[in-house]
Amino acid sequence: MNIKSFFEAQRERNKQIIIDNSLSEYKIWARKHLELHTKISHLADETKCYKYWISEDEILNNSALFEKYLDCFALIITVGIDKKYDAVEEIAIKPNDYCLSDQFLNLFIDLNDLIISPSEDHYITLIEDFISLGITLGYSVTQIEESF
């Protein structure tokens, strides 16, 4: 999957954001990573994949779920832009057999790896796993590309 267009589109959107200049570069970095943790948590909450008890089935709001997915993806792309990982052009599509809860746990591990040991390889893994999550949620690559 070619992701160059995601970086270009997100760069344009990021120009509209007014950054608090009183914050140090580190504080902005830390807050963006905390924001990403929070948004991934909200996405997981929307799926209810963490439930281990029996209750009446809740109907998923697919529209809200997709919006949260795209919001998380935009922030992941922004983190890549900030860390100068935006030269990455191709991402391997890796559908997998993991359940949703495992996929979300893997995303938290990916994000923590990126924080503890920042590298382009860790960033690519995060994107690959996030796109894989989207496929598991039923989104096609084309749908993600067109909606982003």
Verbal overview:
The model has no long low-confidence stretch (mean pLDDT 93). This protein has helices at 4-14, 25-47, 62-82, 100-116, 120-136, 141-147. With 148 residues, the chain is mainly α.
List the helices and strands and how they pair.
Elements: H1 4-14, H2 25-47, H3 62-82, H4 100-116, H5 120-136, H6 141-147
Helix pairs in contact: 1-3, 2-3, 2-4, 3-5, 4-5
Short description:
This protein has 148 residues and is mainly alpha-helical. It has helices spanning 4-14, 25-47, 62-82, 100-116, 120-136, 141-147.
SSE succession: HHHHHH
Oligomer: single chain
Q: Please, how many helices?
A: 6
Radius of gyration based on Cα positions: 15 Å
Provide key terms for this protein.
148 residues; mainly alpha; 65% helix
